[in-house]
Design a protein that fits this description.
Layout (H helix, E strand, L loop, with lengths): L1 H17 L4 E4 L2 E5 L3 H7 L18 E7 L6 H11 L4 E4 L1 H5 L3 H9 L3 E4 L12 H19 L5 E2 L8 H10 L2 E3 L3 E2 L8 H11 L4 E6 L9 H10 L3 E3 L1 H5 L9 E2 L2
Parallel strand pairs: 3-4, 3-9, 3-10, 4-5, 6-7, 7-11, 8-9
Antiparallel strand pairs: 1-2
Helix pairs in contact: 3-9, 6-7, 8-9
Protein name: Polysaccharide deacetylase family protein
EC number: 3.-.-.-
Enzyme class: hydrolase
Length: 257
């Protein structure tokens, strides 16, 4: 009971503090402070080189393509598309029934230059579970991913975007930054690939973070059209770390355009 009380007080403090800055409204908590990619870049040392490859998002019209809740039986085809289109993505992976089931796809994601991150082990809502359970939800996929790729994730996406000050504290302890999104196709509501494509295109803007799920049958077929249309509009696709460079995501902070 004491732990629950502390979490509720922390959540209330987080929601109150958010009123003073850039905020995101979430179910289960009124508001959460977020930091925009442009802010991270501006706060980096003046004149610093972009750390990731040749893309400098201070100058280029960047956008990040992210996929939640995989790997799945659709992920191999998605990776083929991304390789063909020369587009890097950020994958927020689930552990149970996903990383466990498709370890070779996790290895392939990392080998082909994508950012491999965490979406928790079992998609539990982090604001509704104990501190011990939060740590387990975050530690287990990190350990599994590190074992497969040699690199421990530094980014995570909270299920349903639900987070609070207590989650931030634990993420900071575990070396994780939280990444939300600015574009959602709500592909969990439809298998219509044309509709998914249109929803993404309607919402996309510079520094956008696109949320898709490669577990649904309509999503992967929509990806080539999304990529082609956004490239025609002058966008350059990057991973989330590339979007922040030359700045870096800080553990315990929440990022959203």
């Amino acid at each position: 009971m004491q732990g629950t009380g502390r979490r509720l007080r922390r959540r209330a403090l987080a929601c109150a503090a958010a009123a003073a800055g850039l905020t995101l409204t979430l179910a289960g908590c009124a508001q959460v402070d977020t930091t925009a990619p442009s802010t991270v870049r501006a706060e980096a040392a003046h004149g610093a080189p972009a750390k990731f490859g040749s893309v400098d998002c201070r100058k280029a019209k960047c956008i990040a393509l992210t996929f939640d809740a995989g790997p799945s039986e659709n992920s191999a085809r998605l990776l083929d598309i991304l390789k063909e289109k020369k587009v890097p993505a950020t994958f927020f992976l689930l552990g149970k029934r996903h990383i466990e089931k498709y370890p070779e796809l996790v290895k392939r994601m990392a080998a082909e230059g994508h950012e491999v991150a965490s979406h928790t082990w079992d998609h539990k809502i982090l604001t509704k579970i104990s501190d011990k359970e939060i740590r387990e939800e975050l530690n287990r996929p990190n350990e599994a991913i590190e074992k497969l790729t040699g690199h421990k994730p530094t980014l995570m996406r909270p299920p349903q975007g639900r987070t609070d000050s207590n989650v931030h504290e634990i993420c900071k302890e575990l070396g994780l930054a939280e990444v939300l999104w600015s574009v959602t196709a709500k592909d969990y509501t439809t298998n219509d690939s044309a509709l998914i494509t249109q929803r993404v295109l309607d919402q996309s803007s510079r520094d956008g973070i696109i949320l898709l799920h490669d577990i649904y049958p309509g999503t992967v077929p929509a990806v080539p059209g999304i990529i082609d249309a956004l490239k025609q509009r002058g966008y350059v696709f990057v991973t989330v770390p590339q979007l922040l460079a030359p700045g870096k995501a800080e553990p315990g902070k929440v990022y959203r355009p």
